[in-house]
């Protein structure tokens, strides 16, 4: 029966909100990507958070709709996620119940996401889980608790660049990195592009024409300049930045880092209050739900109060 094979819903995510200005969706696994769990006789179960996790999700939350998609059941995974991400930068958690069971194996079928797959990237540690849409996947080696690991944070420049260039189909750029270590390969291509940009600047130093800063790296990545994300009001435009020797990705990183630092400032100043208010709201909602439930049960078992009989004179 399909009940035992398909996800619990045909649409795992609600329809996109037009006012939510993040055109891309980044889907993340949990075990051995964001955390690593170990059991020992001495300590029992212990969970380690991957180095750079907070920076990774907080920085990329300005560019991507963040989704957790894990094979862990809700009952086990939800308490872990609440400690891992108390401010809920990961907007939508999808648990074991949202996966598909096919030919005896669990699959994370992105076609159920209710998102345009040309704008979806999934990062996982097991190619079997993403075999339905391998063209959307970045598969990393499982993280086993190494505190010096940088592979997760190392993906940020690449993922930021995709957003900056407003690429129309992420699957094309992912294909160009197929079989390569993305942080290393992206850094290599960026270094080549920077050398070409600097050479162009030297040639054009005494001319009015300024090299674009886009063409070199954009060409290496197969991107189209017309889709790039322009500077917001109050920032120097790309032409001014190029004249200062900055490439397009330099502008994006400066902007992204400023936004991240402002976010961190807000968390330091208001984070405890946010969590307190959320806890109070949840407790209030739970109380109202329980009151409503007991009220319904009371009505079921007690029945209606009989109408009073008129007094005899």
Automatic annotation (TrEMBL):
InterPro entries: FCP1_dom, HAD-like_sf, HAD_sf, TIM50. Keywords: Coiled coil, Membrane, Mitochondrion, Mitochondrion inner membrane, Protein transport, Transit peptide, Translocation, Transmembrane, Transmembrane helix, Transport. Residues 19-162 form the FCP1 homology domain. Residues 304-313 have a biased composition (Basic and acidic residues). Signal peptide: none annotated. Residues 294-313 are annotated as: Disordered. GO terms for cellular component: TIM23 mitochondrial import inner membrane translocase complex. Residues 253-288 form a coiled coil. It is found in: Mitochondrion inner membrane. Pfam families: NIF. One of its GO terms (biological process) is protein transport. It is a single-pass membrane protein. Component of the TIM23 complex, at least composed of TIM23, TIM17, TIM50 and TIM21. Interacts with preproteins in transit. Belongs to the TIM50 family. Essential component of the TIM23 complex, a complex that mediates the translocation of transit peptide-containing proteins across the mitochondrial inner membrane. Required to direct preproteins in transit and direct them to the channel protein TIM23, and possibly facilitates transfer of the translocating proteins from the TOM complex to the TIM23 complex. This is Mitochondrial import inner membrane translocase subunit TIM50. It comes from Bionectria ochroleuca. The lineage of its organism: Eukaryota, Fungi, Dikarya, Ascomycota, Pezizomycotina.
